[in-house]
Amino acid sequence: NFFKLFPASCGCDPCSQTQRSKLQHRRARINQQINKEMRMRAGAENLFRATTNNKVKETVALELSFVNSNLQLLKEELEELNSSMEVYQTESEAINVPMIPLGLKETKEVDLTVPLKEYICEHYREDSSLFEKEIKEFMELRQAMRTPSRNEAGLELLVEYYNQLYYLDQRFFPPHRTLGVHFHWYDSLTGVPSCQRALAFEKGSVLFNVGALYTQIGARQDRSAAAGIDRAINAFQRAAGAFNFLKENFSNAPSLDMSGPSLCMLVRLMIAQVQECVFERVTLTTQDTHFTSQLQVAQEAARVSDVYSLVLQTMSQPLVKDYVPFSWASMVQVKAEHFRALSHYYAAVALCDRTHCDEEGEKALLQLHVSNPAGPPLSQVLRDPEERRKLGKAHLRRALIRHEEAMRVHGLCKILRKMDILQEVLSFVHKRSLDKYSEMDREDDFDETAEAPEIHSQTQQKPDIIPPNFSTVQVTDIFRRLGPLSVFCARARWGPVRLVCLQRGEGGLGLTLRGDSPVLVAGVVPGGCAEEAGLREGDYIVAVDGENCKWAKHGEVVHSLKSCSDRGVELSVITLHTHDTQVCFIALHTHETQVVLCVCSSVSLLNWNRKKNREGGGVTKRLGSTFSLPFGNLGDGESMY
Predict the structure, then answer these.
(1) What is the pTM (predicted TM-score) of this model?
(2) Matching Pfam families, A to Z (predicted)?
(3) What distances in angstroms separate CA 524 from CA 53, 528, 533, 539, one per listed residue?
(4) 132, 137, 139, 141: CA torsion to nearest 10
(5) Which residues contact 93 (CB under 8 A, 6 or more apart)?
(6) Which residues 6+ apart lie within 8 Å of 413 measured at CB?
(7) What is the CA 214 to chain-centroid distance, rounded?
(8) 518 within 8 A of 483, measured Cβ to Cβ
(9) Is the CA virtual torsion 617, 622, 624, 625 positive or negative?
(10) How do residues 517-535 score in pLDDT, each as one tens digit?
(11) Between 291-315 and 260-285, two packed helices, what is the crossing angle to 10 degrees?
(12) Residue 110 DSSP label
């Protein structure tokens, strides 16, 4: 049944035996082993502190050393798995520098059946057995999102679950109380388990996986064509947006991968990979070999080097240095050196191979360097072929130094040495610069090669951080049958359901109704039928003659009351006592303008109903996105009967 409900086409791919899924299974197995070893270590440490027997202490200390050794080996194995960038790369035969993707956070199964049933009975006073279908649906959705497919369907699955968590939070998680359910998630890089009862931890972990999945989608694009480059740029920008949103909206994260410094590093890493894709698009679309075009490519390469240098600096911070995989830091350093070398190479090609230079080219050369090179003014260099050759040769010399440094750093990392495509790229560009340098070198050139200044970085496209748009995946509240969230939520408190038998008198029923979903008794006529039957102002009608009308519109309830026979009508009503203090957002719509007022209040919904603006709707803020909630009591006009 699970596979029928959530097939691979819906974004869940639990049975796929691709390299990536096998990698995920290995990660899950290592995470479980790490969790077991950490529990053993915690027990041994407690015993070591508690015992006074020296012999027992020696034995426990020996066991602790074995456990710590096993933990270290498991963490190293997991690091190697997390550094397996090749399985996430494109299968295209095109030669591109590999990108750095991020593995998904793993989670343990959570059984919410008993806690949700108990809460439905206790808080909503409903028969929980009637909601087994909804509970099962939610559990299957959570199970499906643990193995999202690496495409748009997988992203939609994660966002769908994230959106459902909003409703779950509103329905079952009141302030200052939890359901007693523990959410277990493993660190994406170290595998260290974290456990919290707060639903925010579940939300944050799912959002982290949204960003991680975007990195995998970006890494798999075929960047030999402009369309693939654009898709990669979009994916990495959205990954940066997800991590940045997480950084700004979550604090005190229990796992290092969701800590502020780590998320800051991930955002900068994604931005750097966007900048790299921009460079690849510039080189791909720059067909002409004009002097100015080559200088622009040089400045784009310098820009990529600069942003990777910033990432490397972030990775060297105290809280991140010991956490980031060595292969990541090595790859970032390799790229910083590689693109710095390319900037000098393209500058040399422009100076030596492009003899024609117009006024625009002269202006571009004057803005190329961070500082003016030694020797004649650049305007004179442009007109003197020998001076151009000397400056170009100086740039090539710096390019070769950077190429060799990139290859040296690459050789120090065992994991990078296994990446044939990276070795191929570095060897190719180094040989190209070396051949160019040999071509320009002369036997009678006894002048000492000048020192070329660094290239001033500049880009044609600055990366954007695209925040997640949760409204792209529309969801229906799984537990919708409990009633409109405006009344039937975890923060609301109401009395037991009362049965009121109304019979129409000569003056009518003697009550005023307002709004819908659910309909409110806005007033009762003193001495009228409604008051005598026990109806009170502020009651909500939840059923008419046994028919549930929590979601009924104003007109539907009115029609039911008008259609009552001589024996009268039986109403099921509740009285809302209070809402717990919370921040609510009320959207007031006036034709083409929307004004949002922030109200901190613990007023009852009766007060919400008395707002004069009949066109409004309720909106509650949910981690940077908004969901329209049916404060429908503001919708229809009031009617008197």
Answers:
(1) 0.79
(2) BRO1, HR1, PDZ
(3) 78, 7, 11, 10
(4) -170
(5) none
(6) 326, 327, 330, 331
(7) 8
(8) yes
(9) negative
(10) 899 999 888 888 888 888 9
(11) 170
(12) -
- Phi, psi dihedral angles at 48 (to 5 degrees): -65, -40
User: What is the phi/psi pair of residue 609, to 5°?
Assistant: -65, -25
**Pairing label, strands 582-590, 498-502:** unpaired
Structure tokens belonging to residue 168: 């779950």
Among all chains, which residue has been given the structure tokens 């994660």? 158
Q: Which two tokens stand for residue 533?
A: 């039957």
Token pair listed for 179: 């359901």
Tens digits of residue pLDDT in 4-61? 444 444 566 654 444 545 666 676 777 778 878 888 888 888 888 888 888 888 888 8
pLDDT, greater one: 204 or 620? 204
Task: Return the structure tokens found at 290.
Answer: 């004009």
- Quick one: DSSP state of residue 610? T
Asked whether the beta carbons of 91 and 219 are under 8 A apart, the reply is no
Question: For residue 368, which amino acid is it?
Answer: L
Residue 581's pLDDT is 43
- Measured CA to CA, the distance from residue 77 to residue 480 in angstroms comes to 45
Sign of the dihedral through C-alpha 292, 293, 298, 303: positive
C-beta separation of 208 from 277 below 8 A = no
On whether the CB atoms of residues 183 and 173 are closer than 8 A, the answer is: no
At 310-321, the pLDDT tens digits run 999 999 998 898
What 363-366 contacts at long range (C-beta under 8 Å, 24+ apart), as own/partner pairs, is: 364/291, 364/292, 364/295, 364/296, 365/295
Sequence letter at residue 117 = K
Q: Six-digit token pair at 530? A: 């409604």
Whether the Cβ atoms of residue 217 and residue 242 lie closer than 8 Å to each other: no
